[in-house]
Design brief:
Blueprint (H helix, E strand, L loop, with lengths): L7 E4 L6 E4 L5 E5 L2 H7 L4 E7 L4 E4 L3 E6 L2 E5 L6 E6 L5 E5 L13 E3 L29
Parallel strand pairs: 3-10
Antiparallel strand pairs: 1-2, 2-5, 3-4, 4-9, 6-7, 7-8, 8-9
One zinc ion (ZN) binds next to helix 1.
Length: 142
Amino acid sequence: MHNPSEMHRGGCLCGTIRYVVAEAPLRSAICHCRTCRRAASSPTLPFVTFPTATFSFERGTPQTFASSADVVRTFCGDCGSPLTYVNRTDSETIDVMTVSLDHPEKYPPEDHVWVSHKLDWDVIGDRLPCYPQGRTDQSDAS
Ligand SMILES: [Zn+2]
Ligand SMILES: [Zn+2]
């Protein structure tokens, strides 16, 4: 769905932190889990998964927070924008908060995950696949 040579850039609200990825995204989804909700102070947290290899912060150094034993999230220490998620058990990929990308409209979600945690008043208005927990065919990410 994307030109693989395209650069993907994004950053936080105040502009202190900027990142770049040089590889095509692997997937785009919307997470409804309680942890993401708290991290974003939002009913859902949309994310785009990229290969970790070419991801880098090109401006600023984000704050880090271990939201569980194997998970490191980053955010801007100045404005608080959530930026990335890395699970140490799968360090080949990094999840970037979709709305932190400069052009979030280019990364439409493919599915909903952790719908078992969804708030009742958070009504899903699309026909995308919904998974009670993580997507079951993770190895088939496209
Ligand atoms: Zn900021
Ligand atoms: Zn989540």
